[in-house]
C-alpha cells in the first residue's frame, strides 16, 4: 500500500517546483526519505543532441559521488538507457537493461554494488518540453526490490502529470525570464544562429537554450555536473577569469573584453545580471546559496554571412528581425514545430509570423519564400 499522505505531499512540492527550481531538490529528498536506502537522481535529457545533464541527487554518499563525476557517469548504462525510454510511463530497469547484462558491467560491480548492493531502478521520463525531458531515476537495493518496485511504479505513474506539468512550466518561465533580461540586440543575435547560456559564478549552467545545446561537442562542453567550458583554450581562459573575478567581487570589466572571437565564424559576448530564474533541467540544488548571487550570460553568435543576410532580407521585404529569421528558417526547410523549438516560442506564435511573412513577401507558399530568398542571396553575392 502506498505510504499515507506521500502522494499529496509530493504534489504540493511539485507545484512549488514549477516556479522555484529549488523545489526539485526537495522533491528528490522527500522521495529518498520515504523509500529509505534508495538513491535518487533527476537529470535532463535533450533529444536533439543526446546530451544528459545531472540536475539533482539524493542519498548518494559524497565518497561515491566524486568518482561518478570523474568517471563512472561515462559508463552508466542506466543513463544511456534513459535517452531511449518512452515518455510518460514509469519503467523498471529490466525492461531496458536485463539483470544478466547489468551484473556483468563494471558500473554495477565497482560503483553500484558497494553502495548497499543497489541493483534495480525505476525511472520515469516526463513528457517533452521542446527537445528536453526530465528523467527521475530511483536506484533500489536488491533486498528492497520486491517491495519497492510495484509501489514506486504506481506512485510515479500517478505523479507523471504533475511532474510533466511542473517541468513544462519551469522551462517556460525560465525562458521568458531569461529572454526578458537580455538586451534586444543580444536576443536577436542568439535567435538567428547561436545560443544563450546562463551560469553562476562557478560556470555551473543554470539555463541554456536550444541553440546553445546544439553547439555542445563543438564550440562548448557541459559536463555531467553541469559546468560550462569552451573548446577554444583562450576563450575558456577568458570565461574563467571573468567568473573568478566576479566570485572575488573584483570589477569584471577590469582588463577583460566583454566580447571575444572563436575562430573566424563565432563570437561570445558576456553579460551579467542578478537573480535570474534558472531551469529545472540545470538546477544546481536549493542548498547552494551562490545561486542567489551574480549570474553570467554568454551569448554565442555566428559572425559573417548569416547576420548581414538577415538584415538584407529584413530590408528587402519589410520584415521585422523575428519575421526575417522565420523566413530564413522556412527557406532552410524547417517545419513550424522545428522553428518554434529553435526559437523557443510557441507554435501559435510561429504560425502567426509565417502568415505575416507570406503577406509581406507577397508569397503564396513556403516554396515561394524559399525561392525568393535564394534569389536575394544570389543577387547579394553577385
Automatic annotation (TrEMBL):
Q: What InterPro entries does the database record attribute to this sequence?
A: Sig_transdc_resp-reg_C-effctor, Tscrpt_reg_LuxR_C, WH-like_DNA-bd_sf
Pfam families from the UniProt entry: GerE
Ranges in coiled-coil conformation = none
- Output one GO BP term: regulation of DNA-templated transcription
Q: Name one GO molecular function term.
A: DNA binding
| Residue intervals passing through the bilayer | none
- Show the SMART domains listed in the entry: HTH_LUXR
> Any idea where the HTH luxR-type domain is?
316-373
Q: Which named protein is this?
A: HTH luxR-type domain-containing protein
Amino acid at each position: 500500500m502506498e505510504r499515507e499522505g506521500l502522494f499529496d505531499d509530493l504534489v504540493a512540492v511539485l507545484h512549488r517546483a514549477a516556479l522555484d527550481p529549488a523545489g526539485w531538490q526537495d522533491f528528490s529528498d522527500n522521495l529518498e526519505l520515504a523509500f529509505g536506502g534508495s538513491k535518487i537522481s533527476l537529470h535532463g535529457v535533450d533529444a536533439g543532441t543526446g546530451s544528459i545533464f545531472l540536475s539533482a541527487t539524493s542519498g548518494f554518499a559524497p565518497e561515491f559521488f566524486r568518482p561518478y563525476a570523474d568517471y563512472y557517469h561515462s559508463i552508466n548504462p542506466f543513463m544511456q538507457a534513459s535517452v531511449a525510454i518512452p515518455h510518460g510511463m514509469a519503467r523498471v530497469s529490466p525492461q531496458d537493461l536485463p539483470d544478466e547484462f547489468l551484473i556483468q558491467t563494471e558500473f554495477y560491480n565497482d560503483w553500484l554494488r558497494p553502495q548497499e548492493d543497489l541493483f534495480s531502478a525505476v525511472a520515469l521520463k516526463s513528457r517533452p518540453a521542446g527537445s528536453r525531458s526530465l528523467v527521475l531515476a530511483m536506484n533500489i537495493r536488491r533486498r528492497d526490490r520486491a517491495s519497492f518496485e510495484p509501489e514506486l511504479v504506481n506512485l510515479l505513474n500517478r505523479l507523471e502529470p504533475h511532474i510533466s506539468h511542473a517541468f513544462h512550466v519551469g522551462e517556460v518561465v525560465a525562458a521568458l525570464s531569461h529572454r526578458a533580461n537580455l538586451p534586444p540586440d543580444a536576443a536577436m543575435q542568439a535567435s538567428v544562429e547561436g545560443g544563450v547560456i546562463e551560469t553562476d559564478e562557478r560556470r555551473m549552467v543554470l539555463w541554456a537554450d536550444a541553440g546553445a545545446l546544439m553547439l555542445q561537442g563543438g564550440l562548448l562542453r557541459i559536463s555531467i555536473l553541469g559546468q560550462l567550458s569552451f573548446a577554444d583554450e583562450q576563450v575558456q581562459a577568458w570565461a574563467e577569469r571573468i567568473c573568478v573575478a566576479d566570485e572575488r567581487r573584483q570589477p569584471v570589466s577590469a582588463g577583460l573584453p566583454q566580447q571575444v572571437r572563436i575562430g573566424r565564424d563565432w563570437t561570445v559576448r558576456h553579460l551579467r545580471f542578478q537573480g535570474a530564474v534558472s531551469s529545472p533541467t540545470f538546477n544546481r540544488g536549493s542548498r547552494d546559496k551562490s545561486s542567489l548571487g551574480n549570474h553570467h550570460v554568454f551569448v554565442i553568435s555566428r559572425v559573417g554571412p548569416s547576420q548581414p543576410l538577415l538584415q538584407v532580407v529584413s530590408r528587402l521585404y519589410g520584415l521585422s528581425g523575428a519575421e526575417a529569421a522565420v523566413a530564413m528558417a522556412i527557406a532552410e526547410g524547417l517545419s513550424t514545430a522545428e522553428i518554434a523549438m529553435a526559437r523557443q516560442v510557441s507554435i501559435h506564435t510561429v504560425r502567426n509570423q509565417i502568415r505575416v511573412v507570406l503577406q509581406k513577401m507577397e508569397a503564396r507558399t513556403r516554396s515561394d519564400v524559399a525561392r525568393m530568398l535564394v534569389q536575394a542571396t544570389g543577387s547579394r553575392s553577385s
